[in-house]
Structures are given as C-alpha cells and as structure tokens.
Design goal:
With 543 residues, this protein is α+β, with helices and mostly antiparallel strands. The chain is built from 9 helices and 30 strands. The strands form 6 sheets. A 5-stranded mixed beta barrel has the order 1-2-3-5-4. It has a 5-stranded antiparallel beta sheet with strand order 8-7-6-9-10. The protein is rod-shaped. The termini are far apart. Belongs to the bacterial ribosomal protein bS1 family. This is S1 RNA-binding domain-containing protein.
Length: 543
C-alpha cells in the first residue's frame, strides 16, 4: 500500500466517524479517569469518567459498548466518545413509554434536595422524587440500592425532561390490589415488625401490616407471639380475617398447624384414665394439659370426694396427674376431667374401714353452731353433733375443740348411700356419770364449784359432771367459782346421764338435826349418869 492509498483510506475512515454518530467499540485500556476504546477507527477512542455510565473501575477489558462520537482530533488521532448520551436518548424514549403505560422503573436515590430527593435512572437520567411520595420518614437514612418507582409526571422540553417519581403510588396500588384480591385462607409471607404483649405486627409489604394476635399463635394458648417470632425475621402466615373498609388484616400461625382437636374424642374417650400436667389453678378448679393445645378442666366438684378443701393442698402447677375423661365437647373445645375418680372412691369400702362402734382419729375441719365436721381421711368426713362432743352441757363447740385439732371419736352411725357418718367425741372417753353414780347416791354430800348461774339456780361442776342447785335450796347468793357443798336430794338416770340436784339448806338442816340429836343424846347420857350417881349415894347411906 503506497502513501496515497493510506491517505485515501484514512480520509475515508475519518469521514465515517463524524461528530454525533453512534459506534460500537471494545474496551482496550482502563485508567482511573477514563476508558480507552477500539471502535474500528484509525485512532483510539477515549471515554472520560463523566461520560461513562459506571465508574471506570467497573468496566472490563474486552467489554463491548455503544458510544457516541463527541469530537475527533485529527492531529492526535483520537476521538472523544460518550456512553451516556446514546443511553440518555434511549432512556428518554423508554421512560416516556413506561409513563404512558403506567409501568414502574428502577432507580437509585442519590441525595436529598429541596422538597424531595434526586433519583438517577440507569445512573444517567435524573428524576425528582417528592418527599411526600418517597415513603422515607424524616430522619431516616436514604435507602441503598435500586428501588422501584412509578412515573407520575413526564414532561419533555427539547433535551430537558421533567420526570417526577413516586414510591407511594406503588404502595397505594398494591394496597388496593391486596385488599381487592386477597381473601381469608390465603397464605402470605411477611416480616415481623414489632412484638407487643397481645401479639406481633407483621409487615406484609410496605403499607400493609397485619396483626398476629397471641390467640392465633398456637393451639397451646400459653404460647405467645413473643415465644415464636423475632423482629426482622420472615414468617409464613395464613390470612384469617380481612377488614377491607379499615384496611386491617388478622393473621394466624396456628391455622397452618394440625388441629389437635380434630380427633380428640378418639384420642381421649370418655371414661378413660389419662395423664396430664397441671397448667393453672383457679378458685373453681384446675386445668390439665393433655397435649399442646388440648386442656381440660377439673372442676372443684371433681377434686374432692367430700367437703371441698384447698386445691393448692392437692395439686401444684407443673404436677403430672392422672384424671378420668368425663365429657368431650369437640365443637366448644372443652374437656371435663375428674381427679377424684382417678383417685378412686374412698366410700366404696367405707363400711369395712369404719364400722359402727369403732374408735377413730380425725382432724376437726369445720366448726358449726350445731356441731363439728371431723375429717377422717381425704374424701371421708364425719359429723359430730354438739350433744356428742362432751358429757357435760356446752353452749358452743369451741368450748371443747378448735379447727385443726386431732380428736378421737366413736362411729355411732354410717349411711354409705347418703355418704354420712355420725361421730361421738364424748363416747371416746369413759362416761363420767356412770363413774359418779358408782361413787355417790341420794343423800350424800358433795362439793363443787359454781360453773354458771341459770334462771332458777346454779350449775355446779362436781368431778367433771354438772349438778343443779336450785336457788330455793341455797343459803346465800352465789358467784361463778364459789365453792358449794350440798346434799344430793335428787339422783335420777336419764339415758346415758343422770339428773342430780343438790341442796345447801337440807344439808344445813341435816347438820342441825345431827347436832340436836347429839345434844339430846348427850343430855340423856348425863341424866342417866346422874341417876346412877344418886342411886349409888342412897345405897351408901343405908350402909
């Protein structure tokens, strides 16, 4: 090739790369501030950083680019190229088309500016994002990376464009579509945004936050959202309810789990003995967990065979207990259990254990005005009327016993069918009346102390029995505690006791009579002695 041919070829090639033309080139060199291109021209193309879409370091040798020729330098044999300009031209057309179709675009929020934010589309085309459309709260950092936007305004004036974007419009469209398309039973996935005592808030998407209440966390209602969720973690949930008017969504986790109540009547047939853990104790009974999500109630009437006591004395939370399944209501998810039936009925063998006449030991459980309830064992108690508490008369049981006191008693009656036992505390000791009757009889003199005053007399306590002293038979007014000695003037048996009346007056009269008799006898003796003496004197005179 001679010089004239090379010159002609160069002029030809030079003419082909006129300013503003588009060329295809390959990256051959890269520096910190520019990228060098071989685009088939005789010289080397150069793209400065400000005309690149990316940073120079983000390009690779051999990478193909579409470029626009900005300027050529014949003397140096270089051409100034731009990657941005052909891309801008292309983007303007694409953005306009997307705007007209209502489609979304992607861009990066670069910085905050007056009234909003600057967004770069494809890193080259600037757009405005108003603060009210940004979904960026005041004080929040600008989100990193690409975000989706909707073009809400597009104006082109020559080479200048006014492009306004919105994230809020996307959110509003999604919210509208969500509440029109989604329905209860749909499964969604969201991010746990916050956890409260009553449940967790889950962000389904921007603008839609659903509530996962604690009642929808598990069939085991002791498990809460706090136990199974964590802020920032993804969770799959079922839509339980949608309130389209108020834009509220109720979510459920347990709805995605197998329902433990589905076959509950087969797993826990009525009449069977099952084991469970005491979950909670309430004034009216306690709950037993048979399996997670399946709790049954042991009503207080199903705890004790006899008089209801303190539930905490029988079981504690966490105890493993055996119970009998009494009733299953699958629809209402209720199980009725019996603790006492699992323990066995103590009245079944009560006649063998507590025959009439036997001496037993129990604890005073209740004091009534008419008597006391004595607990013999768990589920078996007996009643001791006030008349059977003591051999002597008492006005109230507290004079003899106190609650919690251990006492001995004799079984005087047993009715298995009615579950009743009558007891006698006094019969557990010797009848003091019998002992008294063996020691004293009518006419004997006894001494005791005034126990109390009654309407027409006094009750006198003599050797642990009570005798009666009528006021008409006293010789002075008495006070409680005064010592009294009297004569038994009435001694009559009345069933197991005796009616005994004493008299001070008759005792005094008795003593006076005795004194009179003694004086009479003394005088008679003295008279007789005098007569004998006189006779002896007469006989002495004759001699």
């Amino acid at each position: 090739m001679d010089n004239s041919f090379e010159k002609l070829l160069g002029e030809y090639l030079f003419d082909e790369v006129k300013r503003g033309s588009l060329v295809e080139g390959v990256v051959v060199r890269i520096s910190e501030s520019e990228v060098f291109i071989d685009f088939g021209w005789k010289g080397e193309g150069l793209v400065p950083a400000e005309e690149l879409v990316r940073s120079p370091k983000d390009y690779g040798i051999g990478e193909k680019l579409t470029l626009m020729v900005l300027k050529t330098n014949d003397e140096e044999g270089t051409a100034l190229l731009s990657e941005k300009k052909p891309l801008l031209s292309k983007l303007r057309n694409e953005i306009k088309e997307k705007y007209e179709k209502g489609e979304k675009i992607k861009g990066v929020v670069k910085q905050q500016i007056k009234g909003g934010y600057l967004v770069l589309i494809e890193n080259v085309l600037p757009a405005f994002l108003p603060g009210s459309e940004s979904l960026i709260k005041q004080g929040e950092n600008i989100p990193d990376g690409f975000l989706e936007f909707k073009i809400i305004k597009f104006e082109s004036r020559g080479r200048k464009q006014n492009i306004v974007l919105s994230r809020k419009a996307i959110k509003d469209e999604f919210v509208k579509r969500f509440f029109s398309e989604r329905k209860p039973g749909d499964v969604i996935e969201g991010i746990v945004e916050n956890i409260e005592k009553f449940g967790a808030f889950v962000r389904i998407v921007d603008g839609i936050v659903g509530l996962l209440p604690n009642s929808e966390v598990s069939y085991d209602n002791s498990i809460t959202a706090e136990d199974v969720t964590e802020i920032g973690k993804s969770v799959k949930l079922l839509i339980k309810e949608i309130d389209r008017n108020n834009k509220k969504v109720t979510l459920s986790l347990k709805a995605l789990m197998p329902d433990p109540w589905l076959n509950v009547e087969k797993k826990y047939p009525v009449g069977t003995v099952v084991s469970g853990t005491v979950k909670s104790i309430l004034p009216y009974g306690f709950f037993v967990t048979l399996e997670p999500g399946v709790d049954g109630l042991v009503h207080i009437s199903e705890i004790f065979w006899g008089k209801p006591g303190k539930i905490n004395d029988v079981v504690s939370e966490g105890d493993v207990v055996k119970v009998v399944v009494k009733e299953v209501d699958k629809e209402k998810r209720k199980l009725s259990l019996s603790y006492k039936m699992a323990k066995g009925d103590p009245w079944e063998e009560v006649e063998e254990k507590y025959p009439v006449g036997n001496l037993v030991t129990g604890v005073v459980g209740t004091i009534l005005t008419s008597g006391v309830i004595i607990d013999l064992e768990e589920g078996i108690s007996g009643y001791c009327p006030i008349s059977e508490l003591s051999w002597r008369y008492i006005e109230k049981p507290e004079e003899i016993v106190r609650i919690g006191e251990k006492v001995k008693a004799v079984i005087i009656d047993l009715d298995k069918e009615a579950r009743r036992i009558r007891l006698s505390v006094r019969k557990s000791t010797e009848n003091p009346w019998e002992k008294f009757s063996r020691k004293y009889k009518n006419g004997d003199v006894i001494t005791g102390k005034v126990l109390k005053e009654v309407k027409k007399g006094y009750i006198i306590l003599v050797e642990d029995i009570e005798v009666y002293l009528p006021k008409s038979h006293t010789i002075s007014v008495k006070n409680v505690g005064d010592s009294v000695t009297g004569k038994i003037i009435r001694f009559v048996q009345d069933g197991e006791i005796y009616r005994i009346t004493i008299s001070e007056k008759e005792l005094v009269e008795k003593e006076k009579l005795k004194e009179l008799q003694e004086e009479t006898e003394k005088e008679r003796t003295l008279s007789l002695e005098r007569k004998i003496s006189d006779a002896n004197s007469i006989n002495s005179g004759k001699e």
